[in-house]
């Protein structure tokens, strides 16, 4: 099991990762997400042994690295998958995958499993982005690493391909039984394919948890906003119940026991109805999403909440509507910020 404790990384006098603690279970996929420049790639490079660490320890179970104990990259049994594929252009698919393998049978296994048989004699330049990334993954897994690091493996691919390939990568990692840390910009990708999600801001972990908990019970407002559409409505919290101007709901205090709070609302927590009487809000914008529409509604108090409705419900900016809380799961509530 890979474990990282109190890890800090500096570029010169600039600390870009501080006090990072995480452990990676056998066979677990941990997604690392965060805004650009928050230190995601730096963490991967440090785990791979490509840059030195300033404080803390990385322990793989087989080796231990600290600022004073350097373990070279080639001794770490780590596989890396990059967004630009990093294939040898002059070698065929098979030659790329078999590169430096003493026993080529694991390479053969991954050629078959990742559907690369028909491309084995082709050069990378003749392959699509998705096929190139399969080759990169096959090459990585054929070396039977102890853990795999993926740095935005899907960011150079178009949306339709991304969706399919993310599941192929997850399935291949699970079939290989190898733990992985997967860096992504894409919140949806992190929530759907990860066993756990780590959210970073400014080189510090804000939360490492299951996707469900990161999404529905974020540790703070940054995590709440980073992982998807989030609005906050003021209310009172007492005995596991939140009371707001658009209804009551079960609630859980993230940083408080009771009192005046802000309640985190996801679009699916808010029910929007078109009615001729009793309206309490006005649509201010609508985004068509295909099967649904995301609507922003301004309440009389000035708070803006969002609601997702079926594409069959046609609403437009300026329409008067009725919104209410519609949830049976506890909503996350936070102590109200001082004005
Ligand atoms: N070689 C380097 N020398 C100095 N500073 C660096 C170097 N590489 C990265 N940085 C800085 O370290 C910080 C973290 O960079 P890093 O690439 O790890 O972020 P990231 O979260 O992976 O960003 P992105 O999502 O844009 O890829 C940034 O402020 C970046 O400018």
Provide a descriptive summary of the structure in words.
Helix content is 22%, strand content 36%. The chain folds into 2 domains: 2-77 and 145-221, P-loop containing nucleotide triphosphate hydrolases (Rossmann fold, 3-Layer(aba) Sandwich), CATH 3.40.50; 231-335, OB fold (Dihydrolipoamide Acetyltransferase, E2P), CATH 2.40.50.140. The chain has helices spanning 40-48, 93-98, 105-113, 129-142, 159-176, 187-193, 211-216, 221-226; strands at 2-11, 14-24, 29-33, 55-59, 64-65, 78-82, 147-151, 180-183, 196-201, 204-209, 231-238, 241-244, 247-253, 259-265, 270-273, 281-288, 292-299, 304-310, 320-325, 331-335. Strand 7 (147-151), helix 5 (159-176) and strand 8 (180-183) form a beta-alpha-beta unit. It starts with a strand and ends with a strand. Helix 3 (105-113) runs antiparallel to helix 4 (129-142) and helix 4 runs parallel beside helix 5. It is α+β, with helices and mostly antiparallel strands. It has a 6-stranded mixed beta sheet, sandwiched between helices. A 5-stranded mixed beta barrel has the order 11-12-13-20-14. Bound molecules: adenosine-5'-triphosphate. Adenosine-5'-triphosphate (ATP) binds at residues 11, 16, 34, 36-42, 185. The site of adenosine-5'-triphosphate (ATP) has 11 residues, from helix 1.
